[in-house]
Amino acid sequence: MYRIVEKGTPNTLDYRIFYTKDDKPISPFHDIPLYTDDSKNYCNMIVEIPRWTNAKMEICKEEPLNPIKQDVKKGKLRFVNNVFPYHGYIWNYGALPQTWEDPNHVDSGTGAAGDDDPLDAVEIGSAVATRGEVKQVKILGVIAMIDEGETDWKLVCIDRNDPMADSLSDIEDVEAKMPGILEATRDWFRIYKVPTGKPMNEFAYKGEWKNRDFANNVINETHGYWNALMSGQNAKINCANTTVTNSKSNISIDEASGVLGSQPEKSGDGPPVDASTQDHCFVSRTVPEKVCH
User: Fold this and answer.
1) How far apart are CA 60 and CA 70, in angstroms?
2) CB neighbour list of residue 76: distance below 8 Å, 6 or more residues apart
3) Residue 133 in contact with residue 115, Cβ under 8 Å?
4) How would you classify the pairing of strands 280-281 and 82-83?
5) For residue 89, what are the CA distances in angstroms to 84, 141, 283?
6) What secondary structure does DSSP assign to 115-160, as a single string?
7) Beta bridge mates, 151
8) Are strands 150-159 and 119-123 parallel, antiparallel or unpaired?
9) pTM, to two decimals
10) What's the pLDDT tens digit per position in 185-202?
11) Nearest to 182 by CA among 154, 161, 160, 202
């Protein structure tokens, strides 16, 4: 159904991953539905970063049709450090389409405004995903990370086709059937920026994982913020889309095809990644930090 279209040269600043459906260009942020069907039992998840990799890929909010691109810091491609004992991202990491954490809304539970991004999700199934894959996932819970003063919800979910999916229905099932993964996930998010000179991240709700019902409320709320976003205009976010007909940024298939056509064609495998991106970093967990409030 969904197909990725790679543009530019991998491992360079011009590399992009665009999407089509039935060979027609779409935005993964705006055109892929939040839910897989009307039952709303499963969500679509766009995999930005496969497990065990550390290139910081993300949906680009600012560019037309919102391709996936690698984040850039000080003019260089960004890679997340391998903080011992972890290597890269420890799950398939991505985002839920048609959600938006509104930076103008201060959440009553976290006391912080949204981070201006789609909802983040970690998929804990056994398969290593491919970059750009669209997974159908079962939502299991959520944790409220506070990243540099902003609310940054992290959903935990599992591919509906994973062998463990039928035995996991809520957050307590994850702890019972996959012991250690929630603790490791919280630890990973707490420390992953420390090697870059940033403080440890904090968490609302005393760092507690919230259950599926709570997570679904977060999803519904941020889907509502996305709907409001699409009904107006935003100076920072590119809302160009081909299927949200009631939005002010709906464009024609020809216009969308022009966006893809303006991009350089994919060229080879690109230059090798600097070997230093595979180095391990070490972070003391005993450093006094206010990580929960």
Assistant:
1) 9
2) none
3) no
4) parallel
5) 12, 19, 16
6) -SSPEEEEE-SSSPPPTT-EEEEEEEEEEEEEETTEEEEEEEEEET
7) 114, 146
8) parallel
9) 0.95
10) 999 999 999 999 999 999
11) 154
